[in-house]
Amino acid sequence: MEQSPTNNENTERLLTEQKNRLEALEQSFTVLEQRAKKYEAEWSSLYDQNRDLREENHRLQHAYETLRIQKGGFGFKMLLLSGLGGFVTALVLCFIYLKLKPKEPAVAAFRQFQRENMINFELAIGKGQFGEVEQTLEKSLVRPEYDAIEPQIIFMKEMVKATKNRCK
Questions:
Q1: In 3-state terms, the chain is what percent helix, strand and coil (to 5)?
Q2: What is the spatial distance between Cα 149 and Cα 142, in angstroms, rounded to a whole number?
Q3: Contact 137, 152 (CB under 8 A)
Q4: C-alpha distance from residue 128 to each of 31, 124, 140, 166 (Å)
Q5: What is the DSSP string of 28-66?
Q6: How many C-alpha atoms does 1 have within 13 Å on its Cβ side?
Q7: Exposed (0-12), middle (13-18) or buried (19+): which is 21, by Cβ within 10 Å?
Q8: CA separation for the pair 107, 95 (Å, rounded)
Q9: Cα–Cα distance measured from residue 53 to residue 64, given in angstroms and rounded to the nearest whole number
Q10: Spatial CA neighbour of 106 closest among 71, 141, 147, 66
Q11: Residue 41: what are its φ and ψ, rounded to 5°?
Q12: Burial of 54 (0-12, 13-18, 19+ CB in 10 A)
C-alpha cells in the first residue's frame, strides 16, 4: 500500500505551488505596470502634440483673420480713394467746361450790357434822371453788338417810362 503524503508534505507542496503562482502573478503585474507606463508616456506625448497642433491652428486662424481684415481695409480705402478721385476730377472738368464753353450771343451781349450800364442806370434812376437812362437805352438799340438783346432793351425802356410816369 501506498503511503499517503503527510500533511507537512502537502502543505509544502501547496506552499510551493502558491509561491510559483505568486511569482507568476508578480511577473505579470510587473509586465502590466511597464505596459501601463509605456501607454501613459505615449498618451502624454500625443496629448502634448495635440496641444501644440491646436495652438498652431489657433495662431494660423488669427493670422488669417488679421490678414483678411487688413486686405479688406486696404480694398475699402482704395475704393474710397478711387471714388473721391473720380468725384474731384469730374468736378474740375465740369468747372472747366462751364468756364470755357461758348456762350450764346444773347447771354454774352446781356452780360456786357449789364457791366457797362446797370450801375449807371441805378444811380440815375435813384437821382430821378430818367431822361439820361432813356437816351442810353436808345443809343444801345442802335449798337450792332446788342442786336441779340433788343427785346430786353425795349422792355427796360418801357419799364423806365412806366417808372418815370409813376414818380411824376
A1: 90, 0, 10
A2: 11
A3: no
A4: 131, 6, 20, 12
A5: HHHHHHHHHHHHHHHHHHHHHHHHHHHHHHHHHHHHHHH
A6: 3
A7: exposed
A8: 18
A9: 16
A10: 147
A11: -65, -40
A12: exposed
pTM of the model: 0.40
Reading the block at residue 124, the C-alpha cell is 440815375
Residue 55 C-alpha cell reads as 495652438
Phi first, then psi, for residue 137 (nearest 5°) are -65, -40
Predicted confidence (pLDDT) per residue in 89-135, tens digit? 999 999 998 888 877 888 888 888 888 888 888 888 888 888 888 89
Per-residue burial over 1-11, b if 16 or more Cβ lie within 10 Å, else e, is: eeeeeeeeeee
